[in-house]
Amino acid sequence: MNAPFALLSKQVRMVDLREPDEAARIEAFVTQRKGSVFHRPAWLRAVETGTGQKARGLLAEKAGAIIGWLPLTEVHSPIFGRMLASTGFAVEGGVLAGDIAVARELTDAAKELAIRLSCPTVELRGGEAGEDWHVRQDSHCGFVAPLQADDEAQLQAIPRKQRAEIRKGLRADVVVTTGTTERDRFAHYDVYAASVRNLGTPVFPRSLFDAVLDALDSDILTVWDGEDPVASVLSLYHDGAVMPYWGGGTWAARNLRANDRMYFELMRHARGRGCDRFDFGRSKTGSGAYHFKKNWGFDPQPLSYASWTAPGHEARDADPTSAAHQSRVALWKKLPLPVANRLGPIIARGLG
């Protein structure tokens, strides 16, 4: 007599993403709910492969069907402590569910899981959060705009001053390549590592980039000055959008307008792949990157992030722009690049 009623009850459970059938069911749910690339089990597994931070997730089901999904990465850092992030090394995440009650059940379950795993902090990078979560909508903005039909229309969609910089970049005597070969990967890491060191930030391990390239629809676009890579970006493709995710340029890129050339070439490339949107990713509100994207004609959209800290613990602070880390940032900028590249991945794999 109880079986029919049991089938109608809801349950929230942890998942094992190493099970192919389980992962496939969740991938289908993410597609159905129009989730981001960062909601995908493939992203969680790539992060685990590339950084060692464990892929986890909470699933809400009813009558055998998925009704809610909360992707999680268990992040451990000897410097910044432990946390559950939705999702690790991502700018989006949080609960995917059509019902607020289901979303709240998942976020409550995340707090319980965090305590069991000795993670005093949970971060949700988007999605629904409960009343006892600290929610911020002023820290970061996202930038998304439609891709235009052709190069000239794309240029005309960009404000005049930035358009002039792009035209200078288009006249530069450089070579642009796109691919995922070892040459592409080596060039990208070389440029990206130098770029983030100059910003005072530890570089992620190259194994993270390799894992993402191997598991997801992604590629690398690089601008070369002769034999030297001067700007390079690793981009993600998902649901008709291209997202330039990990990119940067060397000091030599400035005079060549190589960063401007790089992003315009990526727009060309993505349009040729059938993309209809350019997702410029997130930037800290008011930062240099924020204004750079506005100069391209992108309208900033505030992002909602939420965090929960277990009673008796201090909130986790791994934000490189916070006042607490400014002396470390200044010191990191002065490190010789080989030293920064050796130490950076050890620290950065724990940032999450």
Question: Which value, in Å, is the CA radius of gyration?
Answer: 21 Å
Overall SS class: alpha+beta
Shape: globular
Order of helices and strands, N to C? HEHHEEEEHEEEHHEHHEEEHHEHEEHH
CATH architecture of the largest domain: 3-Layer(aba) Sandwich
Top-tier CATH class of the largest domain: Alpha Beta
Describe what this molecule looks like in 3D.
It comes from Aurantiacibacter gangjinensis. InterPro entries: Acyl_CoA_acyltransferase, BioF2-like_GNAT_dom, PEP-CTERM_FemAB-rel, PG_Glycine_Bridge_Synth. It holds the Pfam family Acetyltransf_6. This is FemAB. Helix content is 40%, strand content 28%. By secondary structure, the chain is an alpha+beta fold. The protein has 2 domains: 3-137 and 304-316, Aminopeptidase; 140-301 and 336-348, Aminopeptidase (3-Layer(aba) Sandwich). Helix 3 (41-51) packs antiparallel against helix 8 and helix 6 packs across helix 10 (258-272). The longest helix has 18 residues, at 182-199. The protein is globular, with a radius of gyration of 21 Å. The N and C termini lie far apart (48 Å). The model is unreliable at 1-7 (pLDDT under 50).
